[in-house]
Amino acid sequence: MNQLIDTLLNHRSIRQFKDQPLSKEQIHTIVQSAQQASTSSYYQAYSIIGVTDEDIKQALSNVSGQFYVKDNAHLMVFCADFHRAQLNSTEEQKKTMNGNLQNTEHFIVATVDAALAAQNAAIAAESMGLGICYLGSLRNDINQVSELLQLPDYVIPLFGMAIGYPDHQPERKPRLPMNAIYFENHYANDQTLENQLDTFNNQLNNYYQNRSENKRTDSFTGQIHRKLSKPKRQDVTDFVKHKGMNRK
Amino acid sequence: MNQLIDTLLNHRSIRQFKDQPLSKEQIHTIVQSAQQASTSSYYQAYSIIGVTDEDIKQALSNVSGQFYVKDNAHLMVFCADFHRAQLNSTEEQKKTMNGNLQNTEHFIVATVDAALAAQNAAIAAESMGLGICYLGSLRNDINQVSELLQLPDYVIPLFGMAIGYPDHQPERKPRLPMNAIYFENHYANDQTLENQLDTFNNQLNNYYQNRSENKRTDSFTGQIHRKLSKPKRQDVTDFVKHKGMNRK
What we know:
four-stranded antiparallel β-sheet, NADP (chains A, B), Flavin_OxRdtase_Frp (chains A, B), Nitroreductase-like (chains A, B), oxidoreductase (chains A, B), 2 domains, FMN reductase (NADPH) (chains A, B), 44% helix
């Protein structure tokens, strides 16, 4: 076990930050680390918007419903991005490329590129003693986020990341038992998986009942059913298509 | 600049591995690191298949057309996965959840979850002196990969990762200038971006002409146009829908 792995294993999402800014060098190193992640076919099919304008931060905080979208040392929004393919292109090239840009394959390419870059940014930040929180909640109103950041076609704002010096130390949330997410050669059968989920449900309930704050009775399976039963962000599908991606 | 950031900045994809296996502990630590990545709504909506069966490795290598899918110390396949939501569920719960599971929002959730876990795995491996290569090429025949690994509904094999002790030291490939992927508050205007791409095209051409192997004349924009102009993996769209995701 080395220090880097310690950093990975000690990750927890940070939602309260000290009132202490990042230096330009820190932001530079975080973005540089993001850029060095692997990228499919060398496309580098993502962009990052660093949000410093207080009005935009407030508006994004309203979209997400979370104060830490505004109250942090730095806010980044990670986007799947094939817009650069449109530049320095003839109309004919644009037309030829469109078959690919519109399919799910290239939506996967850009989404994965953005996520790999983001996770490098997260780890770089954590290695400097900073904390981070991913903000999927920006997709609560993906159209508005896109307008606020003036995103062109082929650019999808996937999630944000709040960064700053931690002002709390939440407990590490348990993860599924390894044999419920890691399989050898073949996917596990349902009976085996159901047993593992049962075990984890008990373990997680213990965690909820014994943690220092927000004690409650809950299970993993129960949470999933509950969360997935309310229609959520149904407009993301059309938004992505409207931007020219994942249409066919 | 700390040691962790050095590891991130020194990343290069490794495609030739020494004939030296990983220990069980190494694999365990890599998966454990993957599991500790952030996960949207605590869904942990991904799975990893470790492939050790030589026949399956050979078949996956045939799909990808790349020898290092077979010739490595360990092979993992990362999947977007909402199958666990189907377990311990009544028929009525399944029906209620389906509206969410079928939309693009939840395809993003699972794809990002898988990618964040994968990047933690990659970095954990690199911190141990191992090298990795992402294998999007498994999507060359995504149906066959799914059959080989016996993946149920709501499970999408996104990419593989070859891991092992590096047996070559490729040069670090340049990345886009930071101001072509990182913007403040608003997306950049096209003219500015086109100028940055022009600069990068020259820089990249220098890299290709001066590197130690496979010297050629090429540009970033030229590559993108060339790659995106050939229809690629058009069957991924239908495969994902067939598995129950990203349909509406």
